Amino acid sequence: MPERYRAVLVGCGRMGATIDDEVRDRPDSSLWLPYSHAAGYMACERTELVAVADVIPEKVEAVQKRYNVPRGYTDYREMIEKEQPDIVSIATRPAPHKEQVIFCAEHGVKGIYCEKPLCCSMAEADAMVAACERNGTKFNYGTQRRYMAQYQKMRELVVAGELGEVQAVICHCGIGAALWGHTHTADMLMFLAGDAEVEFVQGTIICKDSDWDGNRLNTDPGIASGYVKFTNGVHGYLVAGSGYEFEVSGTRGKLRTINNGLSCQWRKVGEWNLLEDVPFPDVPRSSGTVKCIEDLVEAIATGRDTRGNIHLARRSQEIIMGIIESHRQGGARVSMPLENRGLYVGREDW
């Protein structure tokens, strides 16, 4: 029988435990459920949720009761030291993520599943990467689409050459919020571009001059436009059109998700260079949360890397931070890696 892994949850709020209630009656619920971290661990055959922690005792008690979790804490450090878990889920707001990830990595945790946004500065991201590397800690990021079968099939078709030479990945994801929402956008932009390194970014954001305090932006700004130049030649675009829909455009065709992943349109170049619809392969609908946890477990068991590892998480964070820095520099190209590692972005309540 495969080994089971003991998991604990830090943060008993929306993504940690309750978001399932928000999507249960939606027409696309089959893409997401189980959605929360706690529900994901309950659904995964190789994990056991043994404890949860939150600074609000009532939340701890509610989640213990809902998911039949034996132990609860109001101090995540105490929980990790006492429980000595294999896996820690971090589902708090982003400001404490750096401290939490480093503490986990330095206290014997084998794998971390960290909710987005990753953190609030590239200096924090660098420290998180260093801690995971130093301690051999596996890491997966809470960008669920990366783990879903439909998006993985899109990438398989791209890699197989079905679109010819890939020219652009276009994210029709609206203005949204840079870290809170476009973390998903940046990750999927990278994923569909083959997770290539980034040469430079440019972009514009929506904020007020009064939101700036030196090298800190005290808001999570909307992104009005973004451009990413990947080292493999792919052009990436974040546009203000509503979505969430992602398009991959190549010399021999296009792929585009419809209605936030409910379906996918595939068009191939035919006679007279006209695009003709062809059937997209049938793929199973499965929870990105559960697939993320399963991937983390398999990485721990085999020693391989995860699909959403700490380096990819840092790169997607850097795309967003680079767009913000580009805006501050009047829309200039910002080379990667980002020089301004101390740029801090985050609302005051984070």
CATH superfamily of the largest domain: Dihydrodipicolinate Reductase, domain 2
The CATH architecture of the largest domain can be named as 2-Layer Sandwich
Distance from N terminus to C terminus (CA atoms, Å) equals 42 Å
Order of adjacent strands in the largest pleated sheet: 16-15-14-13-7-12-11-8-17
Residue runs with pLDDT of under 50 for 5 or more positions: none
CATH C-level label of the largest domain: Alpha Beta
Number of helices: 11
Q: Give Rg in angstroms.
A: 20 Å
Give the oligomeric state: single chain
Taking all residues together, what is the mean pLDDT?
97
The class by helix and strand makeup works out as alpha/beta
Shape: globular
| Count of folded domains | 2
Helix share of residues? 25-40%
Annotation, overall tally of beta strands = 18
Q: Roughly what fraction of the amino acids lie in strands?
A: 25-35%
Q: Please provide the ordered H/E string of secondary-structure elements.
A: EHHHEHEHEHEHEHEHEEEEEEEEEHHEE
Describe it for me?
The protein has 350 residues and is an alpha/beta fold. It is globular and about 65 Å long. The protein has helices spanning 14-18, 20-23, 37-43, 57-67, 76-83, 97-106, 122-135, 149-159, 182-192, 288-302, 310-328, and strands spanning 5-10, 47-53, 71-73, 87-90, 111-114, 138-141, 166-172, 198-206, 212-213, 216-217, 222-230, 235-239, 245-250, 253-258, 263-269, 275-278, 334-335, 344-345. The protein folds into two domains: 5-144 and 289-309, Rossmann fold; 145-284 and 314-345, Dihydrodipicolinate Reductase, domain 2. Strand 2 (47-53), helix 4 (57-67) and strand 3 (71-73) form a beta-alpha-beta unit. It is built from eleven helices and 18 strands.
